[in-house]
Amino acid sequence: MNHTSGGLQLAGITKRFGSFTAVDSVDLEVRPGEIHCLLGENGAGKSTLMNVLYGLLKPDEGQIVIDGSPQNFTNPRQAMAAGIGMVHQHFMLVDPFTVAENLMLGREGGFVLAKDAARQRVRELGERYTMPVDPDAVIEDLPVGVQQRVEILKALANDAQYLVFDEPTAVLTPQEIDDLMAVMDRLRSEGRAIVFITHKLREVRAVADRITVMRRGRIVGQAAPTASEAELAEMMVGRAIDLRVAKEAAAPGEPRLVVTGLKVANTAGGIVVDGVDFDVRAGETLCIAGVQGNGQSELVDALLGNVTPLEGTVTLDGTDITRATPRQTIDAGMGFVPEDREADGFVAPFTIAENLVLNRSNQAPFAHGLALDLAEIDRNAVALREEFDIRAQSVHDPISSLSGGNKQKVVLARELSRPLSVLIASQPTRGVDVGAIEFLHRRIVSERDKGTAVLLVSTELDEVEALADRVLVMYRGRVVGIVSPDTPREVLGLMMAGVPLEDAQGAPRPGKEENHG
């Protein structure tokens, strides 16, 4: 199958869900041998447009043309047969299956790959694109960065000439992002066409040949890769965005959260937090940086009282809370923004108003005995909607009807609507658009300035550099070092890979390194 001429056109694509138009008369051209970035906030219509292209959704209007031939996809198999491959943001892999078995899926009725042939294909493609993966490894045992390689290999095994990468760097380390960029570069040099969907401005400028910006279902313009991050952000949001976080230098007070010798095991009994010591002082932000899966989540669970540590102590304002329950830690003045808001941040069928009082629904003024004061809950919601710029028709709408950024504003509004000693914010801007990031960052800084101790867990180095007063790097459950936020990225990157601080600082600096982290 060879599609190296002609290219791909989307002409007048419109997709409605009821009365809501998610994609509105979009024209897009993708040429062989180029990386075409589709940039836009969450909810701009990027993924919907690509799901139409991949046969997951049927357009209400418009046409897909590949190499001059009009297409009418009703399922992904037809799109794959036409040379389209998609690497989804949420991996479409079967966890209990091996890598080779996942490669064989989706081919029933057509050419069925024998298992040995599938294994061989994994090895060949892995070698060719420097993405080695064990064909017999079970998906659920692989780290996310390797699972993503499998997604890419699946698309390449189908000889896809048009590859769609949907937010592919969301779960990757700086080093893995560099590796992915190199793979995309290689694919482009082979004459394949790549559509790269993202909201990360740094990455767009690093790899794009052309940039198309979407906003509210429409294309609002094209930009050159030489455009500044501020110019791209303004096109995405429709107004000027200040990408720098304005903040005064911290004036730290007494330690509010003190962690000593903390050791935590996972459910299988493995040690995932191993002798961790740190403190967070009043009026400062300590950022925990590191690749996901190095004990950050388990550390936070132990601080909140979700799990009991094997060893060590945690004190909050001098009170030992090592074995406190989550209810007790909340009542002691701990606020929490969880890394997975969909699972842990709110109750999806509840209204916005109900979600805004989840942590205090048993207390005055929202409850009197067993009775809820609905008028007070409504008043609270209307005030917080205004203060936190939560974009919703009504506070009685289910929270599930909101965009990612607005859901996160509800979570933060709930936590900041009471006096806190410590705010723990875990991946606070994951899956959140540029405009909302600006707002959330501002609120976190103003909470710090009130004298709250802020513990921020983030895998986004831009966020760490913007918000941290000190940076603690974790690797395999241990503290590699605590450094200042202006530490060079390559030093932080080495520390995130487990290189001790002294060695990382002494490592030779590259003369000019393009860093995509």
Automatic annotation (TrEMBL):
ABC transporter domain sequence ranges: 8-241, 257-501
Domain of life: Bacteria
GO molecular function: ATP binding
Record Gene3D superfamilies: P-loop containing nucleotide triphosphate hydrolases
One family name in Pfam for this protein: ABC_tran
UniProt cross-references to CDD domains, sorted A to Z: ABC_Carb_Monos_I, ABC_Carb_Monos_II
Cited PROSITE patterns: ABC_TRANSPORTER_1, ABC_TRANSPORTER_2
Signal peptide: none
InterPro entries named in the record: AAA+_ATPase, ABC_carbohydrate_import_ATPase, ABC_transporter-like_ATP-bd, ABC_transporter-like_CS, P-loop_NTPase
PANTHER family assigned: CARBOHYDRATE TRANSPORT ATP-BINDING PROTEIN MG119-RELATED, GUANOSINE IMPORT ATP-BINDING PROTEIN NUPO
UniProt name for this protein: ABC transporter ATP-binding protein
Organism from which the protein derives: Propioniciclava soli
Organismal lineage: Bacteria, Bacillati, Actinomycetota, Actinomycetes, Propionibacteriales
